[in-house]
Amino acid sequence: MGIDAVVAAGDGKAARKVFKRNKALLDVAGKPIIRHIVEALESCRDIDRIIVVGPKESFEEVIGDLDVDIVEQKRSLAENGWEGFLQTLPEYRQSGELTFDIIDKYRDKYALFLSGDIPLISVNEIEQFISQCDMNNYDHVAGITSEEILKLFGPRKGRPGIKMATFHTWDGNFRQNNLHMARPFMLMEGIDLVLKAYEYRYQKELFNILKALVAIIRLGPKDIGKTLAIYLLLQISAGLDALGFDTMAHLISFPVTKTRVERIVSGLLGARFKVVETTVGGAALDVDNEKDFMILSVMYRDWLNQISCNKHE
Questions:
Q1: Would the pLDDT of 69 be above 70?
Q2: In sequence order, which residues have a C-beta less than 8 Å from that of residue 247 and are 6 or more positions away?
Q3: Where are the domains of the chain?
């Protein structure tokens, strides 16, 4: 039996539009980004049902001919993911009501979650990610991509590129790459913090950093000292790196390891959390602004060939 996939591609609260449009509807290489994503999912041997959450009428025009269920968007990215997951449950689809019986029956059910702005996502990367998701031992697995891989898509002499922000750990620098495998019913204890995390996910903005700090203090576990310390070290090291102090940024990140981050996030969520690394790069290349979209459009073919050369063996 395959895995259900949910593509959260709405343009509601906290979502950033590009050229005043839903990012998933922007054309790259002759077709909308959302179509690139769905076609990749359709080609995956591990994927069963595909749910796309977003502006239903617009999406029906561009992917209505594909084997996909389109669900009208809610207010935020996290709510879109939640609604998409519920639509994978037959009893919920029939009644439209979430009951304790449904929760009990599907408590262990997990699904693959993706964002709607990653046109370079590939079958290879999706399958590489899925192959590393040990859902017997974890409730939420998040994909990350190393800075070394991301540099392949960065600016070079005579060629445009996108420089992507990373979080710094002693194990290396990484970027969260828009792939998640999760059991939503096991994450209900920490759902308020999850909703806030997605609302404040643009951590380059000082206001979002401050709001995230408040959310951790208000919604986090009782012993939040270590959590706040790690979060602040992540922010400080990222700031030092942005200023060009690479060595100092690395030294500051000494206490921050992937294992420690996993342990802290597990405590925040009240669930078993794990990160896994993919080595292709496409899932991390999301469209956040007009400049990045223009660069990605120009470089799409070159980067697609590059991704093909980075296939996971």
A1: yes
A2: none
A3: 3-193+271-309
